[in-house]
Amino acid sequence: MSKVNQYIIGLAGHIDHGKTSIVHSLTGKNTDNLKEEIDRGMTINIGFSFLTENITLIDVPGHEKFIKNMLAGVNSIDYALLVIAADDGIMPQTVEHFEILKLLNITKGSIILNKVDLVDKDWLLLVENEIKDFVKETFLENTPIHKVSTKTNSGVEELKNYLIESQNFIKESKREIFRLFVDRSFISKGFGTVVTGTVISGNISVGDKIKILPYNKLTNIRGLQTHDKNVNKLNFGDRGAINFQSIDKIAISRGNHISDPDHFSCYEAAYVSMKLLSKSDKSIKNNERIRIYSGTQEVMARIFFANKKEVEPGEKTCALLKFEKPIVLAWNDVFIIRTYSPLITVGGGKILDLDCYSKWKDNKEHIINISTCNNKQHLIEKIINSKKLNPHTITSLENHLSLTKERLMNYINKNTSIKIFENNWVLTKEQLIYIENKLVDYFDNFHLSNPHRAGLLKEEILNVFYMGSKFLDYFLKLLCDTKKIKLKNNLYNKNDFEISLSKSEIELCEKLIILIDKQKFNSSSQKELLCDLEITESVLKKILTIEINNNNLVIINGTLIFSKKNIENLINDIKKYFTINDTMDIGAFKKIARTTRKYAVPLLEYFDKCGLTYRQGNLRKLNE
């Protein structure tokens, strides 16, 4: 937790209830800065003004048409002022703005009852009671109701003093990694592009490299401002302006995301927890098209439930969101849901996990699994577990959750079901058992189907399981250490597996090896071996398979059979030859191997493939 330098207060409420005039009375500044806003007498865009060096006031639009601008304004506020006109009382956008504040987990605030000069005491008391009932059992229950009039300035000074005195507070930065959503962007003559926003985590300094999403553009910070002053650094909680060095060919706008270069990404899908407003009369159907607001972004999405056809008002559930265009999201971000048409705020939620599987069956399983989580440690466990055969590394999990290593380790250390292996891979106990069972079952089935094969090469296992090569190395070693499997002659098999042969088969194998060994590098064909051993083709195939798997034979080009012992002796002779010669032609090789061209050419090609030699024209050289 950290004490923030700046305090951001957002004014929300119905159109024409006096938010802009309250800001003007408090600061002397009119936040309606667009000609259209001034002409129409309503706030269209987000307005900003400074109450003190540490307090920023944000005036958000109240008109129903500009709710998305309101959402951009309140996404980073620390304290909410719900503005209600005494002559009107609670109106439709009062309700919608208040619901949005609750959905975004804003927990501090108070109420401004404006235009008290327009009503008598009895009416004022009636409206006060209405407000108290309205905010009952919410974060605004038992908070002050500031009675003001911007016409007469009654109560304005008291309100200002209250806000200044209540600014000191402690709040927790969610990740410690720099992050800011753009809520305004403009071109400043002589400076170029400038964006404004609130630092929602971490800090940034002049000269630092940052990433602009969704463009994935890297650039450097040229200048920083906060409260109209040039500064060298913006900290968590600061309201600031950022000037970039150069950003050719991209137009930064509201909804873009500025962050640390190594974290945060755009996603096309997300797993979420959500709740529909109990006061809403609108349900959400499976596969319905909805509007999602997160940070200062707005995007259309389809929503999919695991075991529901429809979610009713007041109901909580988990779902998969598929966005119509990529959106910048991070684990634990909050969002608002509005209907496609008419535009009504119906609920909100939180990001539980990001990306999705290609098959709905897997997505459905993941939704059900994460819906059972009751805290962040448990949720992270489920996210880790969902990787199954391809576990997260510490680094990949940091990036996936957009957390610092320290904060991630804090979560992991609180959960005894999560383990770190080789100071790299992060697995749950359940995941560990799952991978072990998968591999051991595979070996069981393999030996059952191939009783005369001595085992499996690592590459064969990779082709079946598509696991990371380094992680498979580690896990196979783990299984060897625990005596589940064994490794012999580069082949993996079950620890208790042995090729079972009859006495006659053993004798045939021995006879075959002796025969091929004697032939050196003038190998018999398989037809010749059938005659020499007086056996059938199926029996020959069987004993050849056994001896190849036992690493006693080598077959070249699928037809030439040599003993492993002779091949190894020939390798030693070749190396000895190259101690006094730089190159070797085919004639020299024939003398070394005591063979004919028929066998010399494929043998040389075999050694080239093995990496012992390499070809240079018609000559061979030793591969050092």
Describe it.
- It is a single chain.
- This protein is of the alpha+beta class and about 625 residues long.
- The chain folds into 4 domains: about 1-170, P-loop containing nucleotide triphosphate hydrolases (Rossmann fold), CATH 3.40.50.300; about 180-260, Elongation Factor Tu (Ef-tu), domain 3, CATH 2.40.30; about 375-500, Orthogonal Bundle (Arc Repressor Mutant, subunit A), CATH 1.10.10; about 500-624, Arc Repressor Mutant, subunit A.
- Helix content is about 35%, strand content about 30%.
- It has 19 helices and 35 strands.
- The strands form 10 sheets. A 6-stranded mixed β-sheet has the order 3-4-2-5-6-7, sandwiched between helices. Strands 9-11-17-14-13-18 form a 6-stranded antiparallel beta barrel.
- Helix 18 crosses helix 19.
- It starts with a strand and ends with a strand.
- Residues about 30-45 and about 60-75 have low confidence and may be disordered.
Concise description?
The protein has 624 residues and is an alpha+beta fold. It is 34% helix and 29% strand. Residues 31-45 and 62-74 have low confidence and may be disordered.
